[in-house]
Amino acid sequence: MDLRQTTNSHPISSYSDQIGILTSISKPSVSGYIERSSYGNDLLRSLPANVFDRLEPHLRRITVTREQFLFHQDDVLDCVYFPEKAIVSDLHLLEDGRMVEVAMTGREGAVGIASLFYKDPVPNCVQVMQAGTVLRVESKRLRELTRAFPELPKLLYASLRRYIRQISQKAVCNLYHSIEARFCTWLLMVNDRSDRDVLRLTHEQIARTLGVYRPSVTCIALELKKRELIDYSRGGITIIDRIGIEENACGCYAELQN
Ligand SMILES: [Zn+2]
Known about the structure:
single chain; Jelly Rolls; four-stranded antiparallel sheet; alpha+beta; about 40% helix; binds zinc ion; 2 domains
C-alpha cells in the first residue's frame, strides 16, 4: 500500500475539527502577523507578511502518522513540506533494505525545497518519525512566489544550507563517533523539535535510524536508564536529565546549534 494515499489533506480555510489548534485561526489581518503565529513552522513564520499572505491560500495542512512516507527514494517531487508538530527523517535506502538517517527536519525547516530548482528523482525517502501535522504546498506555487518576492529564495536557501550542513555533519558523525554519543545527540535533536515529554520511539526505530543493530540500542538505553538520564517504556522515551544527555552527546550536537 502506498502510505501517501492515507494522508488526510485539509485546506486550511475549511479545517476545523481534527486538530483543535486550527479552530482558533483568526481572519487575515493587515500585518499578517496573526496568521503566521497560528502556524507551527518557524520558517513560514519568518516570512515577511506580504509573502506569507500570498502563500497562505496554497498551504494544505496534513496529519501524518508515525512511519508514514511523505515520499520515496527516486520519486520526482512536486511539493514542499513544512513540518509543524511532526518530525520527519530523510533516510537513504541501501541495496540490502537497510535504511540510515541522513537528516531530520521539524518545525525549524522544510523538506523538498530542492524541487523548486530541478525535477530529478530524489536521492532519499522521507519518513515520519514523530506523528503530527505538516503543511504542504505545491512546488510550482512556491516557485511562482520566489520569482515575485526576492526575499523568499534567500530564506529558502538558508534552510537548504542548514539541511546540507546537517547531512555533512551526519557523515562525519556516523564515521567517527560512538553509538552511545550518536544516540544521545540524536535524542537531543528529536527532543528540540518536539513539544512532548515522551518521545514516541521504539528501539527498533532508533536502531534503523542510526544504522546499527537493535541490541546495541537496547544496551545503551538500558545503561542510560540505570544512570537515570532517560526513562523508557513501551510508550516511548523520556529525557530525565537533559544536561547529562548533553554531556554524553558527541560534539555534533553543539556544532549544529551554531
Ligand atoms: Zn557526532
